[in-house]
Design brief:
The complex is a heterodimer.
Chain A: H1 3-32, H2 40-58, H3 61-85, H4 90-109, H5 122-142, H6 144-154, H7 156-161, H8 166-192, H9 204-214, H10 219-242, H11 248-267, H12 270-276
Chain B: E1 3-14, E2 17-28, E3 32-36, H1 43-50, E4 58-63, E5 66-68, H2 73-78, E6 81-84, H3 96-102, H4 110-124, H5 139-151, E7 157-161, H6 169-184, E8 188-193, H7 196-202, E9 205-210, E10 213-219, H8 225-233, E11 251-259, E12 273-278, E13 282-286, H9 293-301, E14 309-314, E15 317-318, H10 324-329, E16 332-335, H11 350-358, E17 365-366, E18 369-370, H12 372-385, H13 402-414, E19 420-424, H14 432-447, E20 451-455, H15 459-465, E21 468-473, E22 476-477, E23 481-482, H16 488-495
Parallel strand pairs in B: 3-8, 3-9, 6-7, 7-8, 13-20, 13-21, 16-19, 19-20
Antiparallel strand pairs in B: 1-2, 1-4, 4-5, 9-10, 11-12, 11-14, 14-15, 17-18, 21-22, 21-23
The chains are: A mainly alpha, B alpha/beta.
């Protein structure tokens, strides 16, 4: 294998894994505060289509990025209102958000499918994704606000008793997660592809969700996990290209199976999971009256 | 002395109960003011209102003679009101330092926090390691963290909700010294308790509450436990009398060399536990919560396939590998600590809850169907024989008061004629009337030849009904002590781990 080929593969791995890092790091913060948002896939798709349409219509990258982010704020804001204020079930609401996002993005994007655009250079986003992981890690472990986020996810009743606003904290973390998912979507339709196609996130939202657990809610592990998944995904393509004789479905399965195996392995260590899992994850919080 | 807190006509109701009914009284500055009442008398609700945790339906609170609107705990803290909770408001997986920072009103640096907490620890004799995670601390140490966290905010008023319920006698003495010193240094302490002697030893004034109403607010100077108890309950309670001079001969239940080796930091490992129980004997397992009681109970029940070494022998039969139902079929009955969600399903009727516990008995089934006739008549008998106050057996278990539900659960188990009854916290958090009834029932049961194990944090309860007591400390069980010649100081030392 030549040096060029290795560099080429690494390059593709970097480019293809970044959306997982964005969506995953956002969900990690949301889950650290005790909320499980299963709507990543929907948020990503809407973020992708909003950015794409705006770019086609205005030709302005800034507007497209801005509106993509706004779509994440609005959708995750609705999710937050439902699960925090109306106390709907987080799992059902998250699934609904995904289904809604898939449908909405397909409808909005119908006319724009296949429209050619000039993509953005992915490297800006790749650098930002690494920076974000570092910043989130720093935020959660070193700052008081990060400590409050962890405290709210660990025991919301105690956090309230100490005078912290559980609902407000969770609104912020849910919206942060939503914005990160939109960014992941934006990256896919503007930098990675660059184009719009119905359902183009191809399950990356679900992978990002799994990665958060796989990483036992630690930002650095999330980065490693994302790159294992991304690496295996690219590796299987290369194996296919080299001409390894196995059914195509098997290759398509590989990244999922690799991630699944690691996931099962990690989650089987109950002690480790218990230590870093937010204890209030997916538990509705009812304010005393 | 001036009044620092004035409650004026506080009213708070929940569906079906009036928690606070026109509550008015004053708390004097720099005093220790106790609030006394049974479980459910409304004392916790009242202090939660003062701390902004609960909103009153009507009424006013004056702080330093100014009307205070306390909407949330953060407003309360800004007014100088801090609270030490009965069920601690600590974060298990975070360190002591992180927990302290979370309790601070202002942002300070870690070094400053260390200085401040060291000053407080030195002054009042606390001993904290700032870097330990809370999950590794004993209950007493956790309470210290809570108190230090409150003191870091320089409060004017400190509310303590049942602070002694989780402490050993030695720790209680130490805590009282600290509280007295704090008050001398200018603090006002509101102390909630249902233990009469503590209130007389510690507090200057006491407000007695019954059914949500204030009975009276008096100085504790001229009171003794008996007069105070009468005011709290409105009637006198007779104590259960255990006959202690019986020669027990027949072995019924043995635990031999029982140990666990779990790596989970949230569980306590049991260490070579030996226990010998004779027919008709009541054996108490004392100890502060969190010293392995939960783990021991789980193994006795065999609920979660807990891994352990050693032997559990019931009537010469090794029951190590028998399931819960198999053990029940051998006439071992259990009453677990959590009434709702463990001993009983709150959303199900009393009859259905009978069936869930008696599923191993064929008489309650017709083939694969439930024999409701039998179950309903069993439920009626339990309700009648054990004074359960409920309109019918169709009432959901969650609707019953703690005391009534506990009488129902204990009745349910006793009516199945067990030879061995294992109870965990049988009278925790219930009214004095039900408590007395349950204790009397247990004593009578033992006199009929049933062997009983009681796991309890309540030393007074164990001393009242047991023949022998052992202390569980960090997973090790002490040698049994005979209750009739027991030495309380020695028992307290066992509970604090000062004796092996």
């Amino acid at each position: 294998m030549s040096i060029e080929l290795i560099i080429g593969i690494l390059n593709i791995v970097l480019i293809s894994t970044t959306p997982l890092v964005f969506a995953g790091i956002g969900e990690l913060v949301t889950e650290k505060s005790g909320v499980l948002n299963l709507g990543l896939e929907g948020l990503m798709l809407v973020g992708a289509v909003t950015g794409f349409i705006t770019l086609v219509l205005t030709g302005n990258y800034f507007y497209s990025l801005f509106l993509s982010i706004i779509s994440g704020v609005i959708l995750s804001g609705i999710f937050a209102f439902l699960v925090l204020n109306l106390m709907t079930n987080q799992i059902a609401t998250g699934l609904a958000l995904t289904i809604f996002g898939i449908g909405l993005s397909a409808m909005l994007g119908k006319k724009f499918a296949g429209t050619p655009i000039d993509g953005l250079n992915p490297y800006y986003f790749i650098v930002i994704s690494f920076l974000l992981v570092f910043l989130v890690g720093y935020f959660l472990s070193k700052t008081k606000s990060g400590l409050i986020v962890r405290a709210v996810g660990e025991n919301h009743n105690s956090a309230y008793a100490l005078g912290y606003n559980v609902i407000k904290t969770r609104y912020l973390t849910i919206i942060f997660g939503g914005v990160m998912s939109s960014l992941a979507g934006y990256y896919i339709s503007i930098c990675y592809a660059p184009m719009w196609q119905e359902g183009m996130t191809a399950g990356r939202g679900w992978i990002a969700l799994a990665l958060v657990v796989f990483a036992t809610w630690k930002p650095w592990r999330l980065l490693v996990g994302a790159y294992i998944f991304g690496g295996v995904a690219i590796m299987q393509m290369n194996l296919q290209a080299i001409g390894v004789k196995l059914p195509g479905q098997f290759f398509n399965m590989m990244p999922y199976i690799a991630t699944l195996i690691v996931l099962v392995f990690i989650s089987s260590n109950k002690v480790r999971l218990k230590l870093s899992a937010p204890s209030c994850l997916n538990i509705p919080y009812e304010k005393n009256s | 002395m001036q009044s620092i807190v004035e409650f004026k006509n506080i009213f708070k109701s929940y569906p079906g109960v009036i928690a606070n009914d026109d509550v008015s009284f004053n708390i004097k500055e720099q005093s220790i003011h106790a609030i006394l009442g049974e479980n459910g008398a409304g004392k916790s609700t009242l202090v939660k209102i003062l701390y902004g945790h609960v909103k009153p339906d009507s009424g006013e609170i004056l702080i330093d003679s100014d009307l205070a609107i306390i909407n949330s705990p953060s407003t309360a803290k800004n007014l100088g009101i801090n609270m030490v909770f009965q069920h601690f408001s600590l974060f298990e997986s975070l360190t002591v330092a992180e927990n302290l920072i979370l309790g601070m009103n202002e942002n300070i640096s870690l070094t400053k926090l260390k200085d401040n907490s060291k000053t407080i620890c030195d002054k009042y004799g606390f001993n904290l390691n700032l870097n330990s995670p809370i999950s590794s601390l004993s209950v007493g140490q956790r309470q210290s963290v809570e108190i230090v966290r409150s003191l870091l905010n320089n409060p004017k008023i400190l509310i303590m909700d049942e602070p002694t319920s989780v402490l050993t006698p030695d720790e209680i003495t130490k805590l009282f010294k600290i509280i007295k010193k704090l008050v001398k240094d200018g603090l006002t302490v509101i102390f909630i308790s249902h233990k009469l002697e503590e209130i007389i030893n510690l507090s200057d004034y006491v407000t007695i509450m019954r059914n949500g109403k204030v009975v009276s607010t008096i100085s504790t100077q001229n009171e003794d436990p008996e007069t105070l108890g009468y005011k709290m309950l409105g009637y006198k309670v007779s104590k259960a009398k255990q006959v202690s001079d019986i020669n027990f001969s027949k072995d019924i239940f043995n635990i031999k060399n029982l140990s666990t080796q779990s790596k989970d930091p949230f569980t306590i490992n049991l260490n070579k536990i030996d226990l010998n129980l004779k027919k008709g004997q009541i054996f108490g397992i004392a100890g502060v919560a969190g010293n392995g009681q939960k783990e021991l109970m789980e193994i006795l029940l065999n609920e979660n396939d807990y891994e352990f070494s050693g032997d559990i022998i019931f009537k010469d039969l090794n029951i190590n590998n028998l399931s819960t139902f198999q053990r029940k079929s051998l006439s071992i009955s259990y009453v677990t600590e959590e009434r709702l969600g463990h001993s009983a399903v709150p959303e199900m009727s009393l009859s259905e809850n009978i069936f869930l516990s008696m599923n191993h008995k064929s008489e309650f089934k017709k083939g694969d169907f439930i024999n409701f006739e039998k179950i309903n008549s069993y439920a009626s008998d339990v309700i009648k024989n054990f004074n359960v106050d409920t309109p019918s057996y169709n009432v959901k278990a969650g609707k019953l008061s703690g005391g009534n539900l506990q009488k129902f659960i204990i009745g349910r188990e006793i009516m199945s004629n067990p030879e061995l009854l294992i109870l965990s916290q049988p009278t925790w958090g219930i009214d004095a009337g039900s408590e007395a009834f349950i204790k009397k029932t247990i004593v009578e049961l033992s006199q009929k030849g049933v062997s009983i194990i009681i796991i309890s944090h309540d030393l007074d309860e164990l001393l009242e009904v047991c023949h022998q007591i052992s202390v569980l400390y960090e997973g090790s069980l002490s040698n049994p002590l005979n209750v009739k010649d027991i030495n309380i100081t020695k028992l307290g030392k066992y509970m604090g781990g000062l004796l092996d």
